[in-house]
Each structure stands twice: as structure tokens, then as C-alpha cells.
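Suppose a classmate hands you a notebook page containing two proteins, each written out with its sequence and a corresponding row of C-alpha cells. How would you begin to make sense of it? This section walks through that situation. The first entry is reproduced here exactly as it would appear on such a page.
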Amino acid sequence: MSINSVLCHALATSLVDLSTADAYLASHPDRALWEAVPGDDEDARNREKENYLVAASRMISRAPLAAPPLGRSLGWEPVQALNVPVQGHPFRVGTVAAYDAEGPTVPVSTLIGVAVEELAGGALRLGDTGEVLGIVSVDGATGTVALAQTPTAAPTNGTSVVLIERLAAGVIQAVCEQAIYLVGDPALHLLNDRERGVMSTTLGGAGGGSVNMDGPDVMGELCFPARRLLESAGLLRSARSLDVGRG
């Protein structure tokens, strides 16, 4: 498979691409697990790694997030496929100026002379078509945004754009931690029981036995390092909190 890691994209499948995950996990204490992912050749192993990144991204996306998806909060259509990034994630607005259809670049007037290193690895959304494209780099001197691909339809001068900053390092690391955790083949059936609130079970004769129950943990499928990283990034709300207010 070929994963789509463009932020806020309607067809996004992962929050992290393979090269980023490989770079982070190369120095991980359990890197041998990542390097030993099964496959007949390198391509097959890479596809399997991508499957783990997709699964990890989906698990994080369905965790109790601190805010709704960014695209939904801004009323974008089509909606983003993954619930991360969330409302409050930093972005900039601007307009296209002197667009040249040669190559995957878009000049944005409001970026000229601005330090924009945090946009590399983020995404650009064209206001006239709603197309979302990955940002490779930005030339602060000219305001030129280099994209992962050429826009399907050439934007006209003056077209509004939204530039979404890349994910926080902690969120990217959380995806990688969750992916390598899944490679280690955790007992997911135990996690499912934990999510239902099952703390322990005992067996007895003649149909006896008992089940110790507690309130369900809706973050049970996230590993401890991923959860801590997401909490540090402010992405998670308390698993047992409830939204309250005046009626």
C-alpha cells in the first residue's frame, strides 16, 4: 500500500509517513522489532510497516481527543479522514500571488519574509477547490511553497489558502510508539476487555466464577508511551471526564 499522510486530507490514512517512522524508530530500544517486521523482500516489509502506521493512526484518531477535528471546526468539505489535527492546531492564511503553473509550487504573498520552518511537513488547502496538498518546504525570502504534487487545477491569483503547520513532535512520536507497540503483538483481546471495564476474572466449578468490573477505559488500546506523549502535546482529554454545562 502507499499511505497518505497529508494533514487534513479527505483520504489520509496515516499521520506519519514511513521515512519519518524509520528515522525515529532507528534509535528506539525496541528497534529490532521494527527491523524484523516480516516480509519476503524490502517492499513487502515496508508495506507491512505502513499497515502498522495506519493502525496506530486510527487508534489515536478514535481516542478521546481534546477538541474536534480542525477541518470540521473550520467547516471544510470534504471532511478530513483522521480526527487529528484538532481544533486549535496552528495554521496561517494567505493568498496566491503570481502563480506559475510550472511545477508543484504555489507563491503565497503573506509568507514573504516570514520564518516558516514549521510549515514544512504540514499541508496547504486551496480555498477555491478545497484541495489539500502536502508541503515539502517554504522559501521565506519569496514566499514560495514547494508542494508534494502539483495542484489538480491551477489556482488563480488572489485565491485564498490555508497553511497548516506540521504536527507537534510529540504527536509524531506517539504514532511511532503505538506502531512499534503493535508490532510487538500485544494481547489485544485483553485490551478489549479493559475497555469494557473488565479488571479481572476468576473461574469456578459448576458455572461459578466472578468478574471484577470498573469504569471502562476508552484509551485502553493506546500504549503507555503513546498516551503520555499525546497528553504532553495537549491532544487528549481525561478518559473519565464528561462535558458539562448549564442546560
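The notebook's second entry, a different protein, reads as follows.
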Amino acid sequence: MKTFSSFLLMNAAAALCAVTARPQAAGQTERVAAAFVLALGRAPSAGEIGHWAEQGPHSVAELMARQREKLRADAETRRATVRKAWQDAFGCEPTEGDATSGPGGGATYTELIQRHIQWLSGHPAEYEKVIQRAYQFLFRREAYPLELDYWKGQSTLSYALLAGCLDDWARRNQPGLMVTGGTATVSVNCIFLTTIRLSPSIAAEARAAAGLEPSTVSQSPSGSGHNLVAAGAAGIVTAGGMHFVAAGASGDFAPMDHVR
């Protein structure tokens, strides 16, 4: 009887460990993916997720610190990150000078995007070009004057997030597309963005690790939904109130016009 009871206890303990391990593993996968998007502007491959998950539990800040070390040491990774941040911020390819004149090694994708957004905030004529690129890419037309006023009345956004907002607005307002308005919203399913869904706690952890503003839920008419983890995204609502990290998509869905 004693042996049978011990057997039951051992099975119960093993089952409890398995149940506990699953959310811990899922949480670590989220942290690895968030660190990749925030530091490099791309999602990790399955192999990269496996490699980093095997390193043991690490916070998003620790994982981003590892990525920063890679950016300092690996010139190819550094160039790719500088180029991706430029594309996502401005919606066009950088010149050779643009791609090599950035800050010293170690600057993350998110830090580069923040600097580009700050520069655009001080150069309204250049920001208008970014807005026009997004409209040309999504709708094959120029933004109307009322639409320019709409976007200029909000916080400056990267080209990638503008494309994400316009995509969501278009889907919600079909079949007749009129003047852009309403609450700027981005969906986790946007094909023009690379997105990783996060739990609320890991989203907060990722936001802090990247030096982003805390979620300001009081700005939303519904009191919630400002859950997008990305540079310049504090004023954007997420569809369904989902928490996720985002960067511009790559490959065929990259929201880039190639036109300066």
C-alpha cells in the first residue's frame, strides 16, 4: 500500500511539473521572439528559438543584451539591422551613406527606429513624404489634405506602423474607402507587419526592456487596447486589445515603396 501511494505521488508530481513546464516554456519562447523583434527587427527562426530557449530562463532584457553583443561583434547583422530600421521608418531603401552613417555598433532596431521617429518629428515636410509613401503603397493614391491633417495631429509614426494602421482602417471601412479617421488601430494579423503575440506580463517586460513608454490604457475610449509593443506606438490601439510586439514585415509583404 505504501509503495502504491508513493507511485501515485510520484505520478502526480511528474504531471504537476509537466503542467508547470508548459507555460514556462511558452513564456521563454515569447521572450526570445520579443527580443529578436525589438533588437533586430525580425522574428527568429525555429532553430534560433530552440537555441536560445535551451540556454535556460532569461528575461527579455537579458536576451536583448545578448543581441546587442551580437550587433557589436557581427558587422553583417549590424548592417542588416540598420537597413531594416531605415526601411521601416521611412518606407524606402537607404543610400549607402544612410546605411553606414548611423550610430556606433550595438544600437538595436528599436533604438534606431526611435531616433528616426524623433528626426521625422522635427522635419514635418519629410514626415509628409512618409505618409504619402504609405498611401501610395496601400491605396495607390496620394493622401487627401484632411488625411494629412489627421496623421499630423497624432504622434509621429514609422512608415511600417502607418501601413499597419491604414491596412486595418481599410479592412474595417470596405467597400467604400473615404477619408481616413477614427482611432488608429493595428491588427496582430496584419500582413505588412511581423507580429508576435505576447502575454500581458511579458508585453510589459518587453516594453520596459526596450525602453518604451508604459502602456497608457487611459488614452483609449474603451479604457484598454494600447497594447502594441513597438517604437512610437503608445497612441495606437490593438484590434481586440491583444498584446503583441511588431516590426515591419520582410520579403514579399514588406511595406516599402522604394521611392524617395
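A careful reader of the second entry would note: The beta strands are 185-186, 193-197, 228-229, 237-238, 244-248.
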